[in-house]
Amino acid sequence: MALDKNGIAQRIAQELQDGWYVNLGIGIPTLVANYIPKGIDIEFQSENGILGMGPFPWEGDEDADLINAGKQTITALAGASFFDSATSFAMIRAQKVQLTVLGAMEVSESGDIANWKIPGKMVKGMGGAMDLVASAENIIVAMQHTNRAGESKMLSECSLPLTGVACVKKVVTDLAVLEIDPERGFILLERAPGVSVEEIIAKTAGRLVVEGDIPEMVLG
Amino acid sequence: MIRKVVPNAQVAVEGIQDGMTLMFGGFGLCGIPENSIAAVRSTGVKNLTCISNNAGVDGFGLGLLLETRQIKKMISSYVGENDEFERQMLSRELDVELIPQGTLAERCRAAGAGIPAFYTPAGYGTEVAEGKEVRHFNGKPHILEHAFDAQFAFVKAWKGDEAGNLVFKGTARNFNPMMAMAGRITVAEVEELVPAGTLDPNSIHVPGIFVHRIYQGAHFEKRIEQRTVRPRA
């Protein structure tokens, strides 16, 4: 069965490593914070200017001066720091932030990502996404394998305006975990519990490499 | 000590004219200069180019200047939460330039740091890079981006003193420090204006040299855009 949003987040959380600073995008990526493996220390960065972001505040404790990049009220954990926007993107461009997790509308087999603009529709803007994908050494995309029309979002080339080129390293969808090898395309690593390799092949439009037996994901 | 205090928002915005480029600090509705926005609205100046990460919401923040059609062009990274903005953008009454958030911050910082331009990897290979010089450093492509030039910068701080020194609270800092540095005339509104000597010089976020006019805002609504909480048991 295909994973739900929480399942995708849970699988991505397994990629977290002790001591990492991590930036989570809006949507499914935000849910990753709910599944940090026991025994490891992670600090979340939000690009509007906080390291050490904590959970939502208790009802009544919300503070207009304490929000995340999704404009949601949050809390600051012990050891947190606040900083301005230039400092925030300094740490992003200089790769002090080890992992960026973000959503996408399309990903290409060479690691291009499109997630900010659909021609003909109201464009809201890229926010910090272009800075994040241009600099992060480790980018994981969290998304559905297909769009609402059932069309693959895993393509040979993106059809939508790009957010960044050759930057995505890994994609976790409701169906599979895939690595991107710029030479070979999408490498299938794992499939969601009960999802067949055939279904993943059918729903991946870009070049897909399937080698040997593909294990099922193991979720907590 | 050089005194920067002005009596109120109306005096603080004196000198703004039609067609000027203005910066407004804030991220979403967090840390926006509410009182200066209201005063700019009252002046009735038009054809403004506004540099701000976001464009407010309907009826609040820069949404107030959109309502009165005072803005000709917005330069922002994300403009999602505003119906009037969308209407003006789609009808082409409003010109919009979208740029990556880190580039927006650095173009402000560069302006305040005497650096005319810089290279950044953000936007390479996308429509943001169209027409811009590309140069490789350490094997990686970068695009040339230029410092902004704004006649006025309006920022909001938590505390400030008579010398123009500013201290911010929480994530309300965001774009305010580098916009304060960037403005040819920087106007700071603060929740609490204190006498010189009250703030610890070790804890100043923006030195008063960057601030030309400072005043205590008459009223702060500090609206929350997305109220997210954990229910108490």
Structural account:
The complex is a heterodimer of chains A (220) and B (233). By secondary structure, chain A is an alpha/beta fold. Helix content of chain A is 16%, strand content 25%. Chain A is built from five helices and 13 strands. Chain B has one domain (9-115, 149-216): Glutaconate Coenzyme A-transferase, CATH 3.40.1080. Chain B is built from six helices and eleven strands. Chain B has helices at residues 9-12, 34-43, 63-67, 83-90, 101-113, 176-182, and strands at 21-24, 48-51, 71-76, 95-98, 117-120, 134-137, 140-146, 152-161, 166-167, 185-194, 213-216. In chain B, the strands form two sheets. In chain B, strands 1, 2, 3, 4, 8, 9, 10 and 11 form an eight-stranded mixed beta sheet that branches. The radius of gyration of chain B is 18 Å and the shape is globular. Chain B starts with 8 loop residues before the first helix and ends in a 17-residue tail after the last strand. Classes of the chains: A alpha/beta (220), B alpha/beta (233). Chains A and B meet through α3 and α4 of A and α4, α5 and α6 of B.
Mind sketching the topology for me?
The complex is a heterodimer of chains A (220) and B (233).
Chain A: H1 5-13, E1 20-24, H2 28-31, E2 42-46, E3 50-54, E4 75-82, H3 85-93, E5 99-102, E6 106-108, E7 113-114, H4 129-135, E8 139-142, E9 154-155, E10 170-172, E11 176-181, E12 185-191, H5 197-202, E13 208-209
Parallel strand pairs in A: 1-2, 1-5, 5-8, 6-9, 8-10, 12-13
Antiparallel strand pairs in A: 2-3, 3-4, 6-7, 10-11, 11-12
Chain B: H1 9-12, E1 21-24, H2 34-43, E2 48-51, H3 63-67, E3 71-76, H4 83-90, E4 95-98, H5 101-113, E5 117-120, E6 134-137, E7 140-146, E8 152-161, E9 166-167, H6 176-182, E10 185-194, E11 213-216
Parallel strand pairs in B: 1-2, 1-8, 2-3, 3-4, 8-10, 10-11
Antiparallel strand pairs in B: 5-7, 6-7, 8-9
